Give the backbone structure.
Amino acid sequence: MKGVVFTEFMEMVEARFSADMVDDIIEDAQIKSGGAYTAVGNYPFAELVAMVSALSQRSGMRVPELVFHFGHYLFGRFATLYPYSIQACTSSFMVLESIEKHIHLEVQKLYPDAQLPDIQVVQSDEKQMTLLYRSPRCLAPLASGLIQGALDHFSEQGRITTEPLNAEGSEVRFVVELL
Ligand code: HEM
């Protein structure tokens, strides 16, 4: 997984919890590198899973809730770090439409080793959009948080309904309704 996901995760833990919490979860998760991540590196996805699990233990928050919060935080950071990726978009639905067609396509071109989900828009009108998420990393709560981040970015009110299509959560349907 791209280093930027790790560096942003550490930033979020420090901002939402504390610098001590960052040290604690690195220790709990037995991260060999000591958490010396760089945005341009590539790191095992299992390390992120271990740190999220350690954070859940220490904070008492459930893993999906933490991952959702991280997704929400990450959208704001992606919008700041890669403004060109969403600059043509004037609404959350435009962002969601362009994930596969532009945003992640560009990420994959820049970083051929990026591990991205498959996110298809299967229905869309002015008020409602249905998306299908597929990924072996089962990060639907991250996607949901990113979608919420996109809604907030454009000051839109919306409701996101998540419907798992299998037990592992590698296939999930999202319905996003604008309110
Ligand atoms: C609402 C909009 C977005 C959604 C729903 C979304 C969804 C996701 C999800 C769920 C992942 C985790 C990988 C997986 O599930 O298999 C991911 C990874 C990633 N996304 Fe997006 N994304 C969005 C917008 C963006 C934007 C604006 C950028 C900026 C360039 C971006 C760049 C990336 C990168 C760099 C990764 C990490 C790839 C890796 O670790 O190898 N995404 N995205």
